[in-house]
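Example complex used in Figure S2.
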Amino acid sequence: MAQPIGASEARDHIEMVDRILAESHQRLCAGGEYFVVWGAGAALVTITFELIHGGRIPAAAVWMVPVVLALCALFSILRARSTRRVLARSSLVQREFFNVLWLTVGLAFVVNVAAFRLFPGIASAAIWSVAEAIVLLYIGMHGNRRAQLAGVVVVASLVAANFAPAGIAGYVLAAGMLAGYGGFGLSELLARG
Amino acid sequence: MDELLLSKIRLGVVAELLTYDWIAFSELARALDASNGNLGAHLAKLVEAGYVDEEKSFVNRRPLTRYRLTRRGREAFAAHVTQLQSLLQTAK
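Predicted assembly (285 residues):
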């Protein structure tokens, strides 16, 4: 059966496809504001728990925690909706990244809320640090050096918190969240600017 | 071979959409260096064939039309490119 196009035309088409695929930048736009908000929010929650545990603030302050987390979640949802509406293109890698982000943060949230007996006190903060490290190192895997560095900072804070004296571990974890997660977000915002 | 994808511009559209979740019309026109009228006509055929999904909305009172490759379009593209490659192999 005769082919509808010749070999030279087929080669031309294949070359065009190759060129388009080679030029499609699978850039991962992390959205710095999410990291600043969640880094600061998670650090604030961890510090609050540590202050309550040390008897420096009343136990009633624990009600601040769900409020802070709910505000962070609300910001993320509204921001994601408004950003998605105005973007001219969105890559599959970008969609995958947001899936990983929501899944990881969502699981950490569930662990903190529904499994607080298994992960009491500082353990719940450590779960947040692990979740944040996974997200940062995932971005790092896509070639973002700042995210790699920030992920290492969060992991280092976990290890340091493990060996820190009692009553200090929470602050160490909070510092890791703020410097690693929040710091990465800030660097992304500055780079975008 | 897929007759729809024998057109170079339609094949280009599908290749552009392949690695993206979705792309706006203006971005496609820029990437393919095509006029709005020409690209619109080709996109309409791809939408009609079920290869591409179209989504119309307004952002800041300005219309925004975005396109996404469907599973059917992805499969048609893969099969078409395979046939193009086998044609080249045969010609060698």
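Strands of chain A lie at 89-91. The helical segments of chain A are 7-23, 32-53, 64-86, 92-114, 122-141, 145-163, 169-192.
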